[in-house]
Sequence to fold (339 residues):
Amino acid sequence: MKATSSFKRVGGAKNAVHNAREFEAKHIDKEKTADNRTYVFDYGDDGEMSTSKVISAEELEGYEREYYRTTYTGACDAQNARNHAKRQYNRDRTPDDLYDGARTKPDSIVLQIGKCEDNIGKKELMKSFGTLIKKYNNEFIQEDARIRFISACYHGDETTDHLHAQLVYEVKDEDGNWKLNQTECLKRLGFERPDPTQSETKKNNVKVAYTEKHRQMWLDAIEETLSVELDRTPEKNHKHEEADHELGLKKREQKALESIISDEKAEYASLRSKNALEAQILSDTRKKLFDLEKYLEEKKLSLDPSDLSAKAEVAQQLRQVHKAIVDFGFDTEMEEELE
Fold:
């Protein structure tokens, strides 16, 4: 079994919309959406997570914005005051600006155990996440820097159960206020570039080192919690659970297609049976009409030439039979046979 985690800076309002399911997507089973859960976390004076509670997905953005206001207003006010002293009023920022900012909105981690063929349930996933939180409390909380989970959203309505966990990287500024700074936070927590001898690049920075550390912590948390042994080989070009969703979606579409084909075959067989019956009825009708026509022709010849009334009656009957032959199209069939 494999377990995955992937970072994507899609926190903030966009992430709240995703978790509230305010959109339509073919890989989401709306009948299971009610089983989704949204968790938010409170912290004690020691900086460690103290309590968690369940809220509605629609309340998530409001809660996260309130966390930003409560935690970062002091730093924003102090920085704005410094900006004003320099007459740089256009550089003012509010906690809401930070929540919407590309680099300051919550970071989002997708945590998943297994894939569609060996999907693990909510209970095991949440227990493993709880173990991960404890590891974060032990590893990533210090006097001047910390990484905090502020919310987590369990999704059980997709192909594979998974968790979207939102976190923030915080450092204390010179005034003692907590502010957001991912790179500085990771450096203060002891992370270095994978290759310190080389300059910083997209693949050689402190976030890369932290991401690998987080991945190992997540795998450790799962193995310790569930007493399982995981395949720890990193997946190349891993993109969240989207590929897994696509695989499951293709399987469902294939199953639906097979069901449609099966239904069509059954209907076709039924129609063939029905058509065969209709063809037999038509064949019997054709024979009867031509037999009747032959009988009336013979009767007409056997009549007394002076019995005009009888001859008129047979002639009328023959016209009716001929009309029926034409209406059924038997006259065309007879012409094709003669040709």
User: Anything to note?
Assistant: Residues 333-339 have pLDDT under 50 and may be disordered.
